[in-house]
Amino acid sequence: QAIRTGPPPEPVPSRPVQLRVLGQPQVRAADAEVTTGLRSTARELLACLAMHPEGASAETVIEMLWPGNDPESGRIGLQTALRSIRVALRQAIGAPRAMFVTYGAGRYKIDAGLIDVDLWRFQAALADATQARQPEDTRAALIRAAESYRGPFADGTSYLWAEPFREEIRRRAVDALARLAALYE
After folding, report:
1. For burial by CB atoms within 10 Å, which of 2, 69, 135, 165 has the most?
2. How confident is the model over 20-61, as pLDDT tens digits?
């Protein structure tokens, strides 16, 4: 059985926005890339929050995206990025009240009901592979992981905070491919 290559698995159809952070970052809505209205800091914020599926505090986000800034300008930057996300994505999918990034329990979090994140599918596939009891289930999960991994995390960006994450995700992808190759031997 050959390993499939090509585009990552299809996003979850019930989620109107797709966030791709494995490989060149991309935000898609309504079957098109969102190219206007989304500030570069908004894109970086989405990538940052993708690394924190459980959410991240304002302090964590500000320290990652605006290190060395005073807290007040960091908060203004965070609010500006959130506004950019909400305005651009509301317009892209025609949902005037959707939040896309929620706030609760002191944390900002991507709304997983609205946004499909390729990194999360990759991580879920790796977890499935670890928990699988049968070789064919392990193989299927590793194939899903390989299909989700399109390249280094936030490839082509200069996000300084991303370097340690980028290397860890790359290592996990290489390990998954090595395990998959071993299963085919």
Report:
1. 165
2. 999 999 999 988 999 999 999 999 999 999 999 999 999 999
For residue 103, which of 61, 158, 151, 152 has the smallest C-alpha distance? 61
Burial status of residue 13 (CB atoms within 10 A of its CB: 0-12, 13-18, 19 or more): exposed
Q: Under a CB-based contact definition with an 8 Å cutoff, are residues 151 and 5 in contact?
A: no
CB atoms under 10 Å from CB of 67, counted, come to 10
Residues 6+ apart with CB under 8 A from 80: 39, 41
Residue pLDDT, tens place only, 96-145: 999 999 999 999 999 999 999 999 999 999 999 999 999 999 999 999 99
Return the sign of the alpha-carbon dihedral for residues 71, 77, 82, 83. positive
Query: In whole angstroms, what is the distance from residue 170 CA to residue 124 CA?
Result: 15
Tokens found for residue 147: 């299909």
**3-state DSSP call for residue 22?**
strand
Q: Which is nearest to 116 in space by CA: 130, 95, 100?
A: 100
* Burial of 23 per CB tally in 10 Å (0-12, 13-18, 19+): middle
